[in-house]
Structures are given as C-alpha cells and as structure tokens.
Amino acid sequence: MRKGTFSCIDGHTCGNPVRLITSGHPNLRGDTMSEKRQHFMAEFDWVRQALMFEPRGHDMMSGSFIYPPTTDDGDASILFVETSGCLPMCGHGTIGTVTFALEHGLIQPTHNSQLKLDTPAGRVNVEYSMEDGFVQWVKLFNVPAYLAYENVMIEVPELGSLKVDISYGGNFYIIVEPQPNFPGIEQWSAAQILKHSSKVREVINQTLQCVHPLDATVNGASHVLWTGQPKHANSSAANAVFYGDKAIDRSPCGTGTSARMAQLFAKGRLSIGQEFVHESYIGSQFVGCIEGVTEVATKPAILPSIRGWSKVTGTSNISVDDSDPYAFGFQV
Ligand code: PYC
User: pLDDT (tens digit, 9 = 90+) per residue, 266-282?
Assistant: First the structure.
C-alpha cells in the first residue's frame, strides 16, 4: 500500500545535506511549532525514517518541512527532521530551507530581504541576499544560546577522563576541547570521532539533566562538538560535530556554532560583536557573531547570528510503499 509520495528539493548547506520536503506534509496539531513537533514525533516519525534513512537517505541526511506561521507576525514555520530525530532547531537546515524556498517561489521575497520564522525552539529571524533569482547568503538570528554546565569531568569507557562543557544553541551540545585524552580533531580519524562520541553522549545523559528551562520538551544532549586546529588561516576555530549514530556534520553547524559562541563568551574568550569564523570538518565556514546578550530564565545568554550559504542540487519525488521491506529505512 502506498503510504505517501513526497516531492523534495535537495541540496546542501556548506556541504551538509538539506532535503526540503515540499509535498506530503502531515497535518499537525498544536498552536506552536514545539507542540506540532511533539505531534509529528508521536504519529509521523515514519515519514522522517523513510525520508532520512537508507535507502532513500543516508547517515548525514537532514531535512525540513515548511508550515504556515504559528505567530501573528511570522512569515513561515519550519519543522526539522534528520537521522537523529526531529530537532528543535537546525542552523544549516534553516539556511538551506530559506535558500531553496526563495529560489523555488515557495516563500515570496520580501521588500527588506528579511523573514520571521517560527521553529520548535522559538523565533528565528533571517536576512538574505538574492541576486538574479539566486540566494547568495542567509544570516540567521538564532534563539538565545547559553552555557548550561561547565568543566564537567566524565569517565569515558576506552578513552578515560574528559573535561567537557554543555552549551545550548537550539540543541544541547557537549563541547570537548583538546586535553590529555583528546589531542584535537586534526589528530583523530573520523572513525575515532564516531567511536567516542556515542559513549560521551551516553555518559553525559546518564549524569546530567539537560532541559531547556522554558520548554521541557527540548531536552537531552544530542550532539558532541569536538574542537581543534582550523585548516584555513581566516578561521577562528574548527569543529567536528557528531549527531545521530554515525554522522559528522559537513557544515560548521549553526546551532553548534551558537552553542560554542555562548561557551566562549561565558568563559571570557569571545566578545559581543566579534566575528567568529567557524570551520567544519570538511573546511567549509560559517560566520558567527554575538549580536547582544539576554537571559534564559535566570541564566545569562547570548543572541547569536550565523551566516552561510546553500546550493540546490536537484529535485526528487520519493514514494514510500509499505510492501517494500525497507519502506521505513534501515541503519547499519
Ligand atoms: O546546523 O544546526 C545545525 C545542525 C544541527 C545538526 C546538524 N546541523
């Protein structure tokens, strides 16, 4: 039986895939994107699994759906999906979604080249530059980011002790800087990053409660951001961000960059207004900046912005038929 057909615009943001699903949207209940996310996860996770996992997707696959705004002044809403689940917020996904939607006429260009977006994590505003029908860059003004825990000592099986920080930038990130048991990403293979990341994440989630103080449905440390030496002279820092079970983000990770800037700001290592060029595992760059400061509940927080670019690589029509034993994907 045919479960659904989904039209998609495929592309990437600085190397990491974005699959914007343009038809076949489930009808979601809820007044906010956070409530709609809960409904999606409860009843429609099969759509995510079918479109993100092999054989229709792959380990790094990430995508989005555009919905009508859930606020009076919003222009559109975004629901994010990826191999790891349904994220509260995704930076590379926002940059890709806005680029593809503007270029394909799904969102009309505005007179001031700005859009107000509702996401499960909250309001994200964007500015963009469009020339001859093509978007050159998108700058997103992300939800407030804050350092949740600092200098946490953990014991990681087969690695030993590590000192980590946990920072929120739309998702909770475990940030690991070079130290005796971790020499920096440039000295580890991808296999080492993947092997140790799941253990680090498991240990943290068994030890600490990572819960957003304003929305308890946003919880759990989902990503591990390992740091190291950049390849490019103009990069401020480099990362390898682990997500899902086997993914290393090919983009510099928008929510990860926000979390990293919040961590560096809280530790006195980055100032308001200072440009922060963040380099991904493949050497692509986002330009981050701390636009100002605020509070989340009573915690000091920053207002991060991230600028990056995306490219469309094609369009596809994906059908999901439950007579196919792999209709809902698989992971190896
Ligand atoms: O860009 O925020 C991001 C992101 C999250 C997971 C992969 N990329």
Answer: 999 999 999 999 999 99
Burial 197-228 (b: 16+ CB within 10 A, else e): bebbbebbbeebebebeeeeebeebbbbbbbb
Give residue-wise pLDDT tens across range 242-254: 999 999 999 999 9
Q: Are 13 and 96 in contact (CB under 8 A)?
A: yes
Kindly give the distance from the C-alpha atom of residue 128 to the centroid of ligand 1, in angstroms, as a whole number: 19
Going along the chain from its start, the domains and CATH numbers come out as 2-130+311-321 (3.10.310.10), 146-297 (3.10.310.10)
pLDDT digits (tens, 9 = 90+) for 97-115: 999 999 999 999 999 999 9
Provide the strand spans (E) within the chain: 2-13, 16-21, 62-67, 76-82, 114-119, 122-131, 134-141, 146-156, 160-168, 172-176, 211-212, 215-219, 221-228, 237-243, 247-248, 275-279, 285-296, 299-308, 310-321
Kindly report the protein residue whose alpha carbon is nearest to atom 8 of ligand 1: 253
243 pocket-lining for ligand 1 (C-beta < 6 Å)? yes
What are the Cα distances from residue 79, in Å, to 67, 105, 231, 311? 7, 19, 33, 20
Evaluate if residue 118 carries a pLDDT over 70. Answer: yes
Ligand 1 pocket, residue 279 CB under 6 Å: no
Phi–psi pair at 149, nearest 5 degrees: -140, 140
Residue 1 clears pLDDT 70, i.e. is over it = no
Q: Quote the ligand 1 centre to 92 CA distance (angstroms).
A: 5
Q: What is the CA(2)–ligand 1 centre distance, in A?
A: 31
Calpha distance 202→222 (Å, rounded): 9
Within 13 Å and on the Cβ side, how many CA atoms surround 100? 29
The answer to pTM > 0.90 is yes
Q: What's CA 32's distance to the chain center, in Å?
A: 19
Return the percentage of the chain with pLDDT > 90, whole number. Answer: 98
CA dihedral over 221, 201, 262, 61, signed as positive or negative: negative
